[in-house]
Amino acid sequence: MASTHPASASPIDDATGYADGPPRAALHQALATLLNARDRARPTEMMLALSQVARGYRALDAVAQAERYLDQALRWSALIGAADAEVRLLCELVDVCYDLAVAAQGDDPPASRAALERMRDHAFAAAARAGHVSDPNWEIKVLLRVSDALNRCGDHEDASNLQARAMKLMQRDAAPTPWHAEATPAVQERTQDA
């Protein structure tokens, strides 16, 4: 019985149907990397390989396949517990789902609405996890990125709330530090006694 797992497909079979060129070659290489990673089944390698395949499909405008691989990469990232990787994948899923929604808008309105709902779910998940990333400046960028996506799909209120959250973070980071907060404990003690 043949496996239906995307990683089990041979790289040549899975990359056929696309025009020859650098994007197809990159996809072919990504699929080969995925096959090697699958043999070891290490979460970090699987997450990276799956996201590389997703980017390869996205470069070929095969956004449905890109979403499928990003979803799998997101599941592997949960095993790692790395918020940065999870947030990056969620942001990529936001973009991919938006592209799917736009592509289906005229031909298949229910599919478009479903893609927008998935996009919103990913956007809210990214916003919720953004506070756990290692770089506080990146948290701001994530909030602004997902608020822009929400705004594009008509969810203006939630977009404004995320923008306000990002603005608060920017103001907090830009607030000057009182001179006595940077002083050594001995200096602080002398200023308090005075």
What are the main properties of this structure?
194 residues; mainly alpha; disordered N terminus
Molecular structure report:
This protein has 194 residues and is mainly alpha-helical. The longest helix is centred in the middle third of the chain and has 22 residues, at 83-104. The protein has helices at residues 11-15, 22-40, 43-59, 63-80, 83-104, 109-129, 136-152, 156-174, 179-182, 185-193. The protein starts with 10 loop residues before the first helix and ends with a helix. Helices cover 78% and strands 0% of the residues. Helix 2 runs antiparallel to helix 3, helix 4 runs antiparallel to helix 5 (83-104) and helix 5 runs parallel beside helix 7 (136-152).
Element string (H = helix, E = strand): HHHHHHHHHH
Query: What's the shape?
Result: globular
Poorly predicted ranges: 1-13
Cα-based radius of gyration, to the nearest Å? 22 Å
N-end to C-end Cα span: 83 Å
Mean pLDDT: 85
Secondary structure: number of strands = 0
The biggest sheet, with number of strands, parallel, antiparallel or mixed sense and barrel status, is:
none
- By secondary-structure content and strand pairing, the structural class works out as mainly alpha
Strand content: under 5%
Fraction of residues in H or I helices: over 70%
Q: Oligomeric status of the shown chains?
A: single chain
Annotation field: number of helices: 10
